[in-house]
User: Fold this.
Amino acid sequence: MGIEILRRLAHRGAAGCDPRSSDGAGILIHVPHARFERTLAHTGIELPLEGDYGVAQCFLSRDAAQAAAEMRALEEAVRHHNQKVIGWRDVPVDERALGPVARESMPAFRQLFVGRMCPAAVFERTLFMIRKRAGRRASDAGLPGFYVASLSSKTVVYKGLSLPEHLADFYLDLREEETRSRIALVHSRFSTNTFPTWERAHPYRRIAHNGEINTLRGNQTWMRAREPLLASAAFGEHLADFKPIIRPGGSDSASLDNVVDFLVAGGRSLPHVMMMLVPEAWEGNSEMPVGRRAFYEYHASLVEPWDGPAAILFTDGTYVGATLDRNGLRPMKYVVTESGFVVAASELGVLDFDAEDVLEKGRLQPGRMLLVDMARGRVVGDEEIKSEVAAHEPYAAWLEGNKLDLASLPVPALPASMTPADRRRRMRAAGYSREDLRVLLAPMATNGEEPTGSMGNDAPLAVLSERPQLFFRYFKQQFAQVTNPPIDPIREKLVMTLASCVGGEGNLLAETPDQCRLLELAQPVLTNEDLAKLVGGALADFSVRVLPALFAPRVEALEPALEALCSAAEGAVDAGASILVLSDRGIDREHAGIPSLLATSAVHHALARSGKRMRVGLVVETSEVREVADLALLVGYGAGAVNPYLAFEAIDALDVGTPRGERPAHYVHALGKGLLKVMSKMGISCLSSYQGAQIFEAVGVGKVVVDRWMPGTASRIGGVGLREIACETLLRHAAAFEVEVPGTTSGGESSDEDALDVGGVYAWRVGGERHLWSPKTVASLQKAVRLEDASSYEVYARAINDQGTAPFTLRGCWDLAGGDPVPLEEVEPAAKIVRRFATGAMSFGSISKEAHENLAVAMNRIGGKSNSGEGGEDAARFLPLENGDSRRSAIKQVASARFGVTAHYLVNADELQIKIAQGAKPGEGGQLPGHKVDEAIARVRHSVPGVTLISPPPHHDIYSIEDLAQLVYDLKSVNPRARVSVKLVSETGVGTIAAGVAKAHADAVHIAGHDGGTGASPLSSIHHAGTSWELGLAETHQVLCLNGLRDRVRVQVDGQLKTGRDVAFAALLGADEFGFATAPLVASGCVMMRKCHLNTCPVGVATQDPVLRARFAGTPEHVINFFFFVAEELRAIMARLGFRTIDAMVGHTDRIAPRTMVHPKAATLDFTDVLVRAVQVESNAAADTASPFTSSTEEALLEAAHHSVKYGAPSTMQVALTNADRAFGARLAGELARKHGAGGLPDATVAVEATGTAGQSFGAFATRGMLLVLEGDANDYAGKGLSGGVLAIRPPARARYKAHENVIVGNTCLYGATSGKAFFAGRAGERFAVRNSGAVAVVEGVGDHACEYMTGGTVVVLGATGRNFAAGMSGGIAYVLDDDRVLAGRVSKATVDLETLAAEDDELLRLLVEEHVAHTRSARGKALLAAWGKRRFVKAMPHEWRRVLELRKVG
Amino acid sequence: MSDPKGFLRLPRVEEGERPVAERIADWREVGVPASDAAVRDQASRCMDCGIPFCHQGCPLGNLVPEWNDLVHHGRLDEAARRLHATNNFPEVTGRVCPAPCESSCVLNIRDEPVTIKTIERTIADHVLAQGAYVPQPARVRTGRRVAVVGAGPAGLAAAQQLARTGHDVVVFERDDRLGGLLRYGIPDFKMEKAILDARVAQLRAEGVAFRVGVAVGQDLRGEQLLHEFHAVVLTTGARVPRDLPIPGRELKGVVFAMEYLVQQNRRVAGDEVDAGRAVVATGKQVVVIGGGDTGSDCVGTAVRQGAASVAQLELMPKPALARLPGNPWPEWPLVLRTSTSQEEGADRDWSIATRAFRGEAGHVVSIEAQRAVLEAGRIKYLPGTELSMPCDLVLLAMGFVGPERQGVVEQLALALDGRGNVRTDASGATSVPGVFAGGDAARGQSLVVWAIADGRRVASGVDAYLRRTPTLARAANG
Ligand SMILES: Cc1cc2nc3c(=O)[nH]c(=O)nc-3n(C[C@H](O)[C@H](O)[C@H](O)COP(=O)(O)OP(=O)(O)OC[C@H]3O[C@@H](n4cnc5c(N)ncnc54)[C@H](O)[C@@H]3O)c2cc1C
Ligand SMILES: Cc1cc2nc3c(=O)[nH]c(=O)nc-3n(C[C@H](O)[C@H](O)[C@H](O)COP(=O)(O)O)c2cc1C
Ligand code: SF4
Ligand code: SF4
Ligand code: F3S
Assistant:
């Protein structure tokens, strides 16, 4: 049956260029004793009784000699642990079931049978120790090919790179009748983070995991750091064999399995281990029993969560269970039958059961566990198992007696505040500028707001800047894209926490009260008062040591100072310190501060290496930290708490209205909010797992520094060493202490601003940081395009291209290396080249109608492409104008908010771009404030004027690569003619994701640079997240080539592209198509005002204000001229390089010659890795011609509805569906929209009656005129993008379970629905009707986060609701049956009020319930109608919606 | 920028002007300072641009958006410090600068620019009103000696910057008073001269020594300066006027504008002017040749002196009323401007080439002119457009051709550039080591704002030369 499941889930796995090799599939089953006994009997081996022997499932080298050595290692380990070697068996396999790639990497398969010679109770642990020892010996002996997939007396794992549906054809054991198992854990892998190998297939020994561990690096480091403190009587001296506990080089899942495996062997029960490693969101959950909270809180002081989207199946042979991460970001459904089956899987319908047999159909909720106890022979619910585990020790009492809270400590005398002169010198030493005060600190200190801005970062990278940079600035935040979703830190805050513990930890294998003797911090920023409390010595058993992080102001003094600091730290730990404070308070003329990030990371790693890290907490007292990015870096590199003392002094001195006393709180609040956002970008919800996770990459930091002081940090192009870092610090130090600082002498008034440099990072300034967009470039470009003045263009292009000794960008460090020139006439014409150009995705909303349409008309005239952006598009634009121009955007974006994404919108596109991320704010959502939402915008976004519109950080239907594949499938179904592209942002690892995108059958992958434009983003994101497209593009091209996928996709790039030379480098690095956003805006009149987010653009570009819009003076010609100038410049370059076509140029990195740089910082860069010439490996794509986008049921539907499509005539159909039938109805929806437009056909023109379990995206984008009635159930995303159609799902007539208590549709239904109706006679999963903007739905129960971000439509819930109901909901109405009055505790009150129903509500509700009953025969509905008026309904009313409705009434 | 839409709400309101009838009766400034409240409002029109083109448009790089914001918030003292950080004499530029900042202001694309100059003046006057400038003497003296030749705006700015950095500065000035063209070129009705004294007092307090009435090159040889000082800065202006060598040039009543303007400035300052050399327009028919700013100053002066009529002739064609397409924002607009003096009564005409002065009894009685166009740099007379204008005073205001070549330039053997100005590099260094030049002397006739900018630039060049490491950057900040 497990095998059947694998087959039914084949669509979730991935196949690369070789369609018969997969990314991995596997199954874990009970040891098939009967099978082994019989086959071994042939070879003369006699097995002991079932359970008295263990089976080692081994992958061995194919080289016989090596294999023999590997076998010896295992046998030795068996004997070492005094067990008996029974004998070996060759595992029978059939290679023909494999594709060539899998066959090539295939190991040899043998099983060793180990006889039990110890008490049964310790046998599993002994087998664990044997496995560990053998692994250790093999790797010591240089035998990398050795891998034990499982060694247990209970379970055995069969896995590898076969296609899931062929696994049983490959492993012959699995085909045999006598191979029987009461359990089966199966898995099919879609690899995104690592290269597929045999080992990496799931299941592992204990778990199978669908998800992504975002905090892996931190978890690994912390585990490593804990190793020295581990001790266990059971393991004794063997413990040494196990270290490192986490096998280096393993995937995230493998690492988690290592830890689970170890902790279970260490004596904790499997559910206990899962609860401690993947805890549910307990922090803010008031509904949770005290004991269980205490369990989680206690364990939080032992171990940080393994954080990330995860559905984990686990088993030790006795328990089989499943658990979901706290966010529930992976689907998990289950069915319990009377005949004794329990099936849990990502999808419903993986096994067919008779409806009558089904007892329960459910879905696992976020953080919940489902357990089957094979010993007890029954299902153990979440409640029961967790209460049992939580009662293991008196955790609550332990916490009570030990945990400390800073607030409870006495307030000591505060250090005297600094003199202005002292403060100003320190500010200069820490590189403060006036901008830092005005732009960054002021908004934070006055109203706790994060500073926002617009447009991209056109300043040089830190390593290329000529101004001394803080060390922080070399690091870019990483973020989640595709493989795991970012979290929504505002609307889904309940899963997130900034709390952490500071202090020394103990032995992870033990549980004692004193292990929670820690200081608890609600958030990691210590005010000056907090720090004084800590250092004040009020706690006798907390010894706090302050270590000065300073060096003598000489370049060569930094390294010894760092070394001394590390040994001082170790010494302090040895001397019993439990908290170390790294402090630069001692800065003065003779002492410069060690860059705090360097100091923190160095000490963190030094202590970790010497096994002392877990014995202390690390606090950083620093003058450098001022903005969120700084704080995030220190925490990310190991700090437990940070005291930005100078920032506190600075905000105290600000000349702003806010009372001094209130500023620190505002500031801390803003930092905290920002930090949550940074964590959420990576999909991390707990600070404790963010701490030390190093989710950054360095751009321009040398290998020596990274390897020695910040190991594990990605840094692709080398860069500065300690010397340069010291130089920069000392330049600032000198500017503070070696010159007369204005405002530090007595006499005359002065302010801090007088003492500081102008900055010029956020706005151009004479003498400030350099910018590519300068008065000169803006003015000359505008002159060029308006007057068609080539010489002005030349002035512009030269200013941007000739970066000379002062480059801004990586390409600025490069030259084009010549080839044999060709005559200019032979180079393809500009008119052809401009077809590869696209304007950037910019929503109508962020820019004005005039600017938006101007770009579209221009691009349509020249055959390039404009991009709708994420705000929808007025359908009137789909039709050409009388003069032949077209305002239709060729590219239509599909972003997380799905504004205006209807079937009609989708079919009117040549390319559909799934926006995963945007360079200026990767991993974040966006917001269009109500005042920008006028009538027109509201119309195309299907919302109401004046209501703030929010784009969530994640696509709620893309939590994984499988999901992305599903969305690609959905879009291709609706519009088979359009290309689908996926927009990603450059970061290390983007290549692998791009490969995943290719495997998901997208046609193009778009790599956006970190420096791209934006209509509104937090400044911290604009500046500190993502990397240059040069890096991401090179990696993408290389990885795609390496995997033979390059010819499957087109590669697009954007981010600060401005000239032909920019395009040339992009092509040479591997791009086929090129996007420009800001430059064409400048051509249309933008003057880089950078006020797009304020709606006050004075040139009518980025504003909705009619007065300002009237000032828009751009014309299509301006834009066209720009693109032709660029193309002509490019042609000249091509001629010089000897390329006649761009196609010939793509990927020719050999034509890029890094210049010798004069600037000492730039001179440290090494581009070798980036400029590797990649060549596409032989691909088997030919074998993959069968389009994955056809389905026989869908074809049948099109056939049946043929007359409806053609003539609008009615049609009907009956069909049986399975979970493999995905996006049922979407193709028809597309056809109808194409033919009949947005209005569609009269209701129920096409009436379909379906039965069975529908696959994902049932009824996606169904248009008006479609009626899909399903008897059965449906998976995730039912009704996605519903565009006017009617869906009804009811349980099978023969079902005996209560519909409203069982799940009938999966997660994230009606996502982005714009109109239509849905009736579901049963419960829905999480995030029901998220971003609904117009559909009407009736459902009998919903999970967490229902009605999230809704902006319109009506939702009726006739049953239970989950937590966080209506978060971010700003429009529409929800009616909820709330007999038990629990909704008030579950609703997100920030945006909605709960009200009683008015008469007209009651009327509407009744009509809807009647309709529900009519479509679904709902028993619950009938009951309600029968007793109408007796049950308690409440109405969830968004504040903004009410305001708008009231306004309308008045109007 | 507390009100991002301030510019939509508030129209531009410049500082006022006294009524013509009132102002031509005296020599006081024409401008009426705006009230602080009005200026605060005006400052809110500034949008704090991502690229403040104003800031680029101002040769000094004045931190316009920053001080606009401070003014709007009523923080005038801090605004003054921010303003002085880049501009040594804002009380001067706030009055006489043609404000290229405003023409490049982003609001000037479609609307009317921020009243930057008025705001600047308001800030400057706020300090002026406090009586005296607080001197900012250097705390450490370097012991290096620098001679500055010429006490115009360039020389004074350089001197101030150098003194604040700790160098010992001696300024040599040929005239009897300090200020160069600020003192004797620009008429009082544009800028009352009292404001210069407070500034000079500040310079003295900062340690600058002045030697007035010393013409370097005559009273003191250039080589000697080089000998006595570690560095020499030439800021002697571009005082050689462009002449009009046509028949009748020798007639009485045909004089250079500067001769005329200096006299009047002296009179206003209370000096006696030798009656024999006096040139006065009272009751006369005056023709000013040259349509530029100097000419305009002549117009205003003549009007105040009670001229019977004033005509102003310009060879170049009449500029357009609005920007032409080839001259887009943020370029300096080549459009017709009307100065306050021209408002006061001048017949202006363009495309007129004067061909001869006619005289009677050795005194000019009329000019003979003809309409003309410029073709490829040559004058082309339009036949049949000859005209004659009666006049008894002709003021030649056709610009200046460069610095005086005799004297110090010659003595130090300084190389000149193609236009006859002292050749300098970016740091202001001339062809002779240790000798620097700036202001009109190095760039030809220009503007006060450029002179100050040059003075500052040259000062840091000198400082770098003297120390080999710049330390002026920080003085630039304060
Ligand atoms: C009539 C007139 C009106 C003007 N109006 C304006 C205006 O409204 N706005 C504006 O921005 N600009 C105006 N300008 C231009 C502006 O005044 C000059 O560009 C500016 O003053 C140049 O400054 P400077 O320091 O280089 O030279 P100057 O101001 O010319 O100063 C040079 C100084 O050097 C002295 N000197 C020369 N030779 C020697 C020597 N050998 N030894 C010692 N001292 C010597 C001179 O006596 C003089 O004091 C005007 C110019 C004129 C002529
Ligand atoms: C005003 C503005 C609005 C934008 N809106 C979106 C958007 O809705 N979706 C998106 O994916 N990118 C958006 N972007 C980013 C652009 O699509 C593009 O990736 C980026 O601006 C390219 O860099 P460039 O501006 O330097 O050319 C926006 C950019 C700007 C300037
Ligand atoms: S000095 Fe002139 S250009 Fe500069 S800000 Fe003042 S008025 Fe404008
Ligand atoms: S250009 Fe004009 S609006 Fe912009 S900052 Fe300068 S003064 Fe303000
Ligand atoms: S930066 Fe934005 S505010 Fe306008 S001028 Fe450009 S669109």
In short: Residues 1180-1186 of chain A have pLDDT under 50 and may be disordered. The two ends of chain A are 64 Å apart (CA to CA). Residues 1116-1137 of chain A form the longest helix (22 residues). Residues A 455-456, 840-843, 846-847, 869-870, 893, 915, 918-919, 983, 1008, 1012-1015, 1054-1057, 1075-1079, 1092, 1102 surround flavin mononucleotide (ligand 2) (CB under 6 Å).
